[in-house]
Amino acid sequence: MSKNLVKNRAPAPIQISAEQLLREAADRQPESAPIEPVVKVHDAEEYQAHLRERRQHYEDNIRYRRDDIANWIKYAKFEEENQELERARSVFERALEVVSSRSPDLWLRYVELELRNECINHARNILDRAVQLLPRVDRLWYKYAYVEEMVQDIPKCRAVFERWMQWLPDDNAWLSFARFETRCGNVVQAEKVLRQYVNAYPSARAFLRFAKWAEFEINNIALARTIYESALTELEPEEVQQARLFRQFASFEERQGEYERARVIYNHALKLLNLEQTAMIDEDISEQERQKREELYKAYLAFEKKHGNREGIERVLVTQRRVKYQKQLEDNPYDYDCWFDWIKLEESQLDNAAATRDVYEKAVAQVPPSSDNKDHWRRYIYLWIFYAVYEELANHDLDRAAEVYQTCLSLIPHKNFSFAKIWIYAAQLQIRRKDVTSARKLFGKAIGLCGKEKIFTEYIALELALGEIDRCRSIYNSYLKAMPHNCKAWSNFAELEKSVGETERCRALFELAISQPALDMPEVLWKAYIDFEIEEGEGKRARALYQRLLEKTNHVKVWISWAQFEATPVGLGMDESRTIMEKADDQLRKEQLSEERVLLLDAWRVLEQEHGDVDSVSKVEAKMPRRIKRKRMRQGEQGNDLGWEEYFDYQFPDDEGAGANNFKILEMAAKWKAAKANAADDDDSDLDSDDE
């Protein structure tokens, strides 16, 4: 009877949505992400399989999230890292076509790809397409102009700016154009550009930028004063009544020493803007303009403090600032920025050395509470540096400045961390005191307690300036004991020995360096060693170094460099270069490194064009591969066949027969698989006959 009961189909009092169910399911997932396996590639076949797998991964990503530009950029970067430049370009072109051709970031990443690979014309074409499509995006124009100036094509760079100016861009674009002309020495043309700018944008901002350029970049004081005066007479009243215009004009006259002119400008601003009374509380102006007017009034008071007779105003203002800083530091004595502001205030007062020193002493007494965290000390250390600089430059008391540095060094917990700059500044001060012994002691103590690379290099520079070669050698020994992996240190040491004519010492240093078990940049060290032997005219030794290097690495660039060396006057000639190239070609062919073989053959062809004849160039060109399109079966993640796909490969003349046979085998396999699929649809008797 229970089977016939009617179920209650009314809605539940608490409804659960599908979104809530999915959220709860996601929350119950394990928090730790799965660790991706480490892929190790042992040969070219596995490398190609790895590339296919990664490409399939990226294709799936862009298929699932087509609008995510980051996936396309990662895909293109992957192809670039594997030296597949055409594939990387294809990825970007697909992204521009499929996702969005109006994305400035995508265009810029495309351009950077071409620039990294030194394809300047490609980069130009891309930028030209980009600015035509997005003429209002300044980043594209900046990049375009930068590329043209980088390759020193001044007319094209100027043409880019002129095209850009036709769109009336913002202020920075005009200023960039003017600075470009200034760098090229065309000051008249730069001035013409800025005059077009102020005509296009008749505003206080434009005139001020024009005047600043005239003053600081071309040092034309008369032109700058004319621009300021024109701004006050030619602009609209609402533009003239801007506080920053008067402030910058008055500051300009003050910098030129024209104090009476500056005072007239300040007084005119006081009357026009009514700064002392209603301007500060005028509700018709914006908050930003109100702040600008307050700053103008403060600048006027500061001007009168420096060049007027307003002693009373000066005392009141300074006292107010001191009280403000004291209250702020009572709440937080470790606010080092506030200490800097207070110190700057005291230093600005004339004949105030005692008060300034007192503030410095109070500031450096606020030692950071933690001696384990270096970040807490970074700002504090500059209090001591400024204190020592003040004693040296303002008070000319070198002895007291040296005491400041010594006290600072005694406070730093060197067992936990140290600051190389303090040691270096203290030692340099001793040099200015003409106390070389104390400077050496400081550097020696710094090596023991700090041991940073900067200390070694500064100490070596000091001794080298003094001509103490033996001391430099001793420091280099300590340097290399502390950092035996530093190739730069080995190279500099060897360069020192070479500069003093110690060829055997230099050679011994290079031998010791390359024998180190771990080096940060071994390729730089080997190159320096080989270049040294070539400069010394030791072709036999350089040749032996190339042979030793090839025992460690079989990189194609080593073979190319060796062959190029043999073609030089120090080498054995082109016959030996050809022998090396042939040996390298055989080695790379055995290892099935197609990309490396192409690089080798390209370099070989260039070498023959420079030093060979027509026949030798023809022989090398006969070895050049052709780029062909092939087919292969695409495998899924489970090992199942997903269908045929096309890919590009290099086919060399010496393996064309094998490639054709392989392609025929693949064709036969495809036909056999199709016949097998058709036979599966027949009946049992037909299937048996087909199998026989």
Automatic annotation (TrEMBL):
Xref: Pfam families: HAT_PRP39_N (PF23240), HAT_Syf1_CNRKL1_N (PF23233)
Subcellular location, principal: nucleus
Highest rank taxon of the organism: Eukaryota
GO cellular component: post-mRNA release spliceosomal complex; precatalytic spliceosome; Prp19 complex; U2-type catalytic step 2 spliceosome
TM region(s), chain numbering: none
Compartments where found: Nucleus
Keyword tags: mRNA processing, mRNA splicing, Nucleus, Repeat, Spliceosome
Protein's GO biological process: spliceosomal complex assembly
Pre-mRNA-splicing factor Syf1-like N-terminal HAT-repeats domain boundaries: 57-202, 323-447
Protein family according to the UniProt entry: Belongs to the crooked-neck family.
Protein name listed in UniProt: Crooked neck
Lineage: Eukaryota, Sar, Stramenopiles, Ochrophyta, Bacillariophyta
